[in-house]
């Protein structure tokens, strides 16, 4: 299933792009496909939150064909 992945903040900067398409039937599969496509950010993906069509979800969540998954890295500030 083709899924649009949108990248934000440091992940986007490290990847050098803000969006790409990968395959995956669950959020975990999408994350694994993303790690294979962008090895430069693979080590950071476990610390990110994932949103499916603008709602935070767990890694076992099913991802329908054509959906959008947002990858949101940890944010700090003060």
Quick structural summary:
The chain is α+β, with helices and mostly antiparallel strands and 78 residues long. The protein contains two helices and five strands, in the order E-H-E-H-E-E-E.
3D structure, described in words:
- The chain has helices spanning 9-15, 27-37, and strands spanning 2-7, 19-23, 49-52, 55-57, 68-72.
- The relative contact order is 0.29.
- A hairpin with a 2-residue loop joins strand 3 (49-52) and strand 4 (55-57).
- The model has no long low-confidence stretch (mean pLDDT 93).
- It starts with a strand and ends in a 6-residue tail after the last strand.
- The chain is built from two helices and five strands.
- It has 78 residues and is of the alpha+beta class.
- Strands 2-1-5-3-4 form a five-stranded mixed beta sheet.
- The radius of gyration is 11 Å and the shape is globular.
Query: What Rg is obtained from the alpha carbons, in whole angstroms?
Result: 11 Å
Question: What quaternary form is this?
Answer: single chain
**Record field, number of beta strands:** 5
CA distance, first residue to last residue: 40 Å
In this structure, how is the largest beta sheet organized? Answer: 5 strands, mixed
**If strands are numbered along the chain, what order do they take across the biggest sheet?**
2-1-5-3-4
Helix proportion of residues, in percent? Answer: 10-25%
Instruction: Characterize the overall form.
Output: globular
**Count of helical regions:** 2
Estimate what percentage of residues fall within beta strands.
25-35%
If you average the pLDDT, what whole number results? Answer: 93
Instruction: Give the H and E element order.
Output: EHEHEEE
Poorly predicted ranges (pLDDT <50, ≥5 residues)? none
- Helix vs. strand class: alpha+beta
């Amino acid at each position: 299933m083709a899924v649009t992945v949108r990248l934000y903040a440091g992940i986007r900067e490290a990847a050098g792009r803000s969006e790409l398409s990968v395959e995956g039937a669950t959020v975990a599969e999408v994350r694994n496909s993303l790690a294979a496509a962008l090895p430069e950010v693979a080590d950071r993906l476990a610390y990110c939150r994932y949103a499916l069509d603008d709602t935070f979800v767990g890694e076992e969540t099913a991802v329908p064909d054509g959906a959008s998954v947002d990858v949101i890295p940890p944010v700090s500030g003060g």
